[in-house]
Fold:
Amino acid sequence: MNICKDRAFELLQRISFERIAGTDKELECANILKEECEKVGVEAVIEEFEIDMPEILEVSLEVTAPTPMTIPCIGIGKSGQTVDEGITAPFVYAEDGLATNLMDCKGKIVLLTGTLKPEVKEALKKAEVAGVIQAIGSLYDPQELIDELRPRNMMKKPGEEFDIPCVAIHITEAQKMVLANTQEVKMVLKQDADKKGTSHNVVATIKGTEKPEEIITFSAHFDSVMYSPGAWDNGTGSVTIMEIMHHFLKNPAKRTLQFVWCGSEEIGLCGSRAFTEQHKEELSKHLFNINVDMTGVLLGYDTAVCSCEHNVANYIDFISKLEGYPISTKVEMYPSDSSSFVQAGVPAVTFARLAPKGGMEIHCRRDTMEFLDPTAFIKTVEFMITFAEPVVNAKVFPISKTFPKEITEALEKFKKMFGMDNKPKEEKKD
Structure:
């Protein structure tokens, strides 16, 4: 195999910096990836797409009764906003936002320790609450993480109306508010919810030798979140598909291979969704997506999540035993760019090497190369190539564009979240 862990980790070192969606640093990383492709003679292009980049102009949260105190908070982008002077209202701890939690909450500001799922947003609107405080983080976070409230935006499908102002606080602050028997709070949130920005995908192509009209796509997102160097998430995925590109450059495949480094995954799979939209006229030629989201962690385990027919998971399990390579397999949706391909009707699998509980962490300053291992990384790359090589060179392509029931059901939730209407065919049973 024409792969090199030293080359991969040298590139990983170069891109391990904060790469937030829509920023100059994300574009800088895109250019580094493009140049790496072109350095070895693989044509690569950078494709632009528009993203939501709401700007929080002013935000504050105060307990006004019984004991006044200021609560550190961030505004949640694309939620509503208050009048200039803010809103003062009774406070209710509404737990995870069930309808029974929200009885008699009209005109009140509610605290949630659950997530703002679509059904919770509907319940909040029906209850006519005045504002929402969402608790995030862990009670066991060190002070540095408590102080770092990472900006977040509300997931809204096109045309969805949700004008309730929402702020986020750390869960330790939520505990203080409930212990203090908070009765009334004042919230201020002003934002430019409609502000847009530009993000980028990097697309490199190696033309197939025998069936160039058929395309296999390798994908990995390259953006990170605020405060995070993003070495593991997902610098490792980015260099994984770069090494796979090196291999197939020296070992040409029968089918065309596209390598897609997706921007803005961390804010809602925006890069992969943009790719499938911008390339929708050729999606019938895309036979399979192989996605990578985090590899190379020293203490961890490998998994392959198959968003496709069961025989793919069975095949991965089969060759793992032939190769003596430990990897778990399952059939379900994975919260990464593979989901965008599946929504567009392209079967997919995501490979990942994940950490055990208490191991390496993502979405924070601790996502550095310190916890990564070149040997573990290269083993995953080698296994992915062992899986991919017979697939991309198959005489008759073996993976159908049909989906088992668990995938079509999961896609219904995905579709509602993003306001999409396309639905792939369900796998027929004999």
Observations:
- The chain has a mean pLDDT of 95.
- The first strand starts at residue 44 and ends at 52.
